[in-house]
Amino acid sequence: MTEHATEIAWSSGSWTNDPERVETDGTDLLVTAREGSDAWRVTSYGFVHDDEHALLAPMPRDSAVEVAFRLDFTAQFDQAGVFLRVDDETWIKAGVERSDGAESLGAVVTRGVSDWSLSPVPGWAGRVVTVRASRSGDAVTVRARVDDEDWRLVRVAPLDPAASVSAGPFCCAPTRAGLTVRFLSWRRTEADAALHPED
C-alpha cells in the first residue's frame, strides 16, 4: 500500500496545540505532550477536550497518510497515532492508547459527539506502529500494523467528500506529565484501491 509514498517534512505541518516540547533526533520527531492534553467531545464523560497535539497538513481527496511511531506508553490514556480534522466538532483520531493497563488499537470518531472503539494489542509495546488513514469517496478507512506485520482494519467512518481535511501525527497525555512520543515518519500516498483485499 506504500509503493508511491512521499515523505512529509515535519516542518510542513501546523500544531493544533503546542506540545510541551518538540525536538528532532536525526529524522525522528520527539514530541512531549502537556499533562492533561486530550481530544474528546461529550459522550459518557460529559466534557469537551480539544487540547490534543496534532501536527496537521492538508489531506486531499483520494489520498492516504501514514504515521509511524515507537510504542512506549506507561500511563492511563497515553496515546498516539494519526489525527484527521475537518473542524472543532468533526474529527477522527486513531492509533494506540493505553487503557486500563493494556495497549489497545482503536479510534475515536467525532461528529458533534465522540464515540470510541478499542481492541487490545498484546505484544506491541516497544515496537514500531504505523497507522494509515485512507480517504476515498464518502469514507475514511483506518488501518494499522506493527513492524512489518499485516495491516489490520481499525475503522471505516463517514467523511464528507467535499470537506476540507487536514491530517497528521498526534499524541496526548490525559493523566500525566512526561510522555514523549518518538515519531519515525509521516508519509502521503495513494488512497487504498479497495476496502477489502482481493483474493
From TrEMBL:
Gene3D superfamilies: 2.60.120.200. Pfam families: DUF1349. InterPro entries: ConA-like_dom_sf, DUF1349. This is DUF1349 domain-containing protein. It comes from Microbacterium imperiale.
